[in-house]
Write a structure and sequence with these properties.
seven-stranded parallel beta sheet; tRNA_m1G_MTases_N; 2 domains; 12 strands; RNA methyltransferase; about 20% strand; alpha/beta; Ribosomal_eL30-like_sf; Alpha/beta knot; RNA binding
Length: about 270
C-alpha cells in the first residue's frame, strides 16, 4: 500500500514534483515541462488512481490522505503528508481540496486504434481554453462518447486545469491527436463514420434532423471564438446547427458539445 511519509520542511526535495504550481514557468504539466499529470481533490485523485496513468506520489494533509486509504491500498508509492501551511509553501498557493497526486503520462493512443473501437466520437479544432476542454471531456464521459480526436490548435487535455474541470474524466475518456488537419478526417470516413460539423450558420441542418444517433458518427466542434474553420466544415459530410432563440448567435463550446453528444446517444 502507499507508504505515508511526513514532510515538515517545504524545501524537502522529495516533494519537488508538486513544487511551485502557480508559476507558469515551473508547472510540470505545461507543454515543454516534465509532462506530469496532476490531479487535485479526493474524487479526481481516485480517478487518477483508477486510470492507466502510472502514479508517482500523493501529497496532502493527513485527513485527505486517510480518506484515500482504500484507493491506495494496492499502490507502492509514497503518500507525503504535511500540514496546510507547509503544503501551501510547496505548491505555491493554499489548496482547498487538500490533496494532490502526480502521475507519468500513459503511452499515446493512435488515432486509427481509437476510431476502430468507437462508434461515437468528438473531434475538436482550436479548443484552446483549458476549462472548456475539461468540460467537453466531462460531458463526453457523461453522455457516452467513446473518445476524442484533437485537431489543430487544441490545448493539452492533461493540463492541470483541464483535469480538474473534467472532474478527472479526461483520464478515462481516450483521446488521440490528429497530425494532419483536416486531412486526417479521411480516417473517419474510411472506417464508415459520418462526420458532422457543428456550426451556427443558417444553412446548416437543424440538429433534430441530422440523425446523429444513426451509425458511427463523429461531431466536429470548433474554437470558442470563431468556431470551426471553413476547411474543417468543408471536410465534413454535413453541417449541423443547434436552433436558438432570436438574438442568440452561439453557445459555449462545452454546452454545444453536450447537446450534440446527447443527440448522438439517441436517448
Amino acid at each position: 500500500m502507499a507508504h505515508v511519509v511526513e514532510i515538515c520542511d517545504a524545501d524537502d526535495p522529495r516533494v519537488d514534483d508538486f513544487r511551485d504550481l502557480s508559476r507558469a514557468d515551473r508547472r510540470p504539466d505545461r507543454p515543454g515541462g516534465r509532462g506530469l499529470v496532476i490531479a487535485e481533490g479526493v474524487v479526481v485523485v481516485e480517478r487518477l488512481l483508477a486510470s492507466p496513468y502510472p502514479v508517482r506520489a500523493l501529497f496532502g494533509v493527513r485527513r485527505r490522505i486517510d480518506e484515500l486509504a482504500a484507493a491506495t491500498a494496492a499502490l507502492d508509492v509514497p503518500a507525503y503528508v504535511a500540514d496546510a501551511d507547509v503544503m501551501a509553501r510547496v505548491v505555491g498557493f493554499h489548496l482547498n481540496r487538500g490533496v494532490l497526486a502526480v502521475a507519468d503520462r500513459a503511452p499515446a493512443v493512435e488515432p486509427a486504434d481509437l476510431v476502430d473501437r468507437s462508434r461515437r466520437l468528438a473531434v475538436l479544432e482550436g479548443v484552446g481554453d483549458h476549462e472548456n476542454l475539461g468540460a467537453l471531456f466531462r460531458n463526453a464521459a457523461a453522455l457516452g462518447v467513446d473518445g476524442v480526436l484533437l485537431g489543430a490548435g487544441c490545448s493539452d487535455p492533461l493540463y492541470r486545469r483541464s483535469v480538474r474541470v473534467s472532474m478527472g474524466h479526461v483520464l478515462r475518456v481516450p483521446f488521440a491527436h490528429l497530425a494532419s488537419w483536416p486531412n486526417d478526417l479521411k480516417l473517419l470516413r474510411d472506417r464508415g463514420f459520418r462526420v458532422a460539423a457543428l456550426t451556427p450558420r443558417a444553412d446548416a441542418k437543424p440538429l433534430r434532423d441530422a440523425a446523429l444517433d444513426q451509425g458511427p458518427v463523429a461531431v466536429l466542434l470548433g474554437s470558442e471564438g470563431p468556431g470551426l474553420t471553413e476547411q474543417a466544415i468543408a471536410a465534413a459530410d454535413l453541417a449541423v446547427r443547434i436552433p436558438m432563440a432570436d438574438g442568440v448567435d452561439s453557445l459555449n463550446v462545452a454546452t454545444a458539445g453536450a447537446i450534440a453528444f446527447h443527440a448522438m446517444s439517441g436517448t
